Amino acid sequence: MNDSHDRPRIGSHDLSVSTELARFMGQDWAPSPLPLDARVPARAVTPARRARLSARFPGERLVVPAGALRVRSNDCDHRFRPYSAYAWLTGLTGEDQPGHVLVMEPSGPHDHEAVLYLRPRSPRAGDTERSGDAFYRDRRYGEFWVGRRPDLAEAERLTGIRCADLDDLRGTLPPGREPSTDPELAAALSELRLVKDTWEVEQLQLAVDHTTAGFEDVVRSLPQALAHARGERWIEGVFGLRARAEGNGTGYETIAASGAHACVLHWTRNDGPLDPSDLLLLDAGVETDTLYTADITRTLPLSGRFSPVQRQVYELVLAAQEAGMAAVRPGARFRDFHRAAMRVIAEGLAEWGVLKDPEGDLHRRYTLCSSGHMLGIDVHDCAQARAETYLDGVLEEGQVLTVEPGLYLQPDDLTLPPELRGIGVRVEDDLVVTSDGARLMSSALPRTPDGIEEWMGNLLDS
Q: Is the model's pLDDT at 2 over the cut of 80?
């Protein structure tokens, strides 16, 4: 389940430690408590979340691990992000959470007590039962290697949850329901997140606002990106700087797809050059420190101006998005906005002569995927929810979702006239369902062709 923390993780090239050095390292350390202003931003809302989960599984032990570190290569791990349900239930979102476990212990027929099993701060004294050298020798968890962790009392103060030592679990999860092996629990943890509370919507708006700034950064950097042999990577890096400076990083791998690369739905290689005659499809989102992410796509003319055929494709996709967004309101079926958007696409393709008939599903050769998804602490949020509550469900006030129709006109598609081949366009925005419709959270970024051209011109001239 998790590594016991009584054996430091030491590299093969680490120097040995003499008895004298070990003794010296274990002496004369001043107290260094966590700052008084240290906090868990979601602490005020997590008790209600745990109560809702408790009500779904009365009398049953629920075990929600944060997850484990994953090796990237040799002794280097990937950057850690906690399991989303664990973060949602505890408010703990940092890179100091690997191996930790939330256990919901039944405390009555209808209640649970939450207990957090954590790896507490490494002891400094060299004469404890545990190895006192972990704080400076342990490459994976040692304080001098990866930073300070709270002790158990500090963790209780931060979270409002009773905390216990991870070693009390003796290396294995206690018997109980655990989401990786229990589809019903996994579904419940997704379905409980379908409707966002006010705090969550605020976090998502913050992510959107930072993402807007990142898109502006990208446009300003276009002269340098166009001059670079791998301009797509330049774009990815510029957006990534904003994401790391303002939040936890990107909420998913940035798609910086120019030319025909835009016809690949998840083009994340981002290793191509930029051509001023092409479009750039940029699909990117900043993830906040609380792990809520935006998900926005804009398709931009790298010259600053759409060509006639690029504008033709873009305007059809935009019209589809407008139709889709108009269908987002409480009481509507989740599928309604996708169907509305695809109806516009199919009719447009028929007008172009690409399709003989707008009826049926042949338009999917050019649209490939769904036109949106739930958004929240995951970019594809609530993914384990049952179809009857999500895909076949009804929209409710407080849900946040994307509307993102696209046309992906493959460069080798002989059903298309040559001038359309190799053009990929997606327009994606984030919306929160309101009492009487939906609010466009990403309205600060222009969407119309004229608006995009003016916006790009202003940024490039500034």
A: no
Type and span of the H or E element at 226 = helix 222-227
| Both structure tokens of 232 | 């797509």
| 102 contacts 86 by C-beta, under 8 angstroms | yes
How crowded is residue 293: how many other Cβ atoms within 10 Å of its Cβ? 27
Q: DSSP alpha helices (H): ranges in 101-175?
A: 134-137, 143-146, 152-159
Neighbours of 36 (CB within 10 A): 7
Pick from 212, 230, 203, 222: nearest CA to 284: 212
Res 8 pLDDT > 80: no
How remote is the C-alpha of 108 from its chain's centroid? Answer: 36
| Reduced 3-state DSSP string for 433-455 | ECCCCEEECCCCCCCCHHHHHHH
Q: What is residue 129's predicted lDDT score, i.e. its pLDDT?
A: 43
Rounded to the nearest 10 degrees, how much is the dihedral formed by the CA atoms of 372, 328, 51, 155? 50
Q: Residue 70: which residues within 8 A CB-CB, separation 6 or more?
A: 77, 78
pTM flag (> 0.85): yes
Angle between helices 231-246 and 198-220 (to 10 degrees): 140
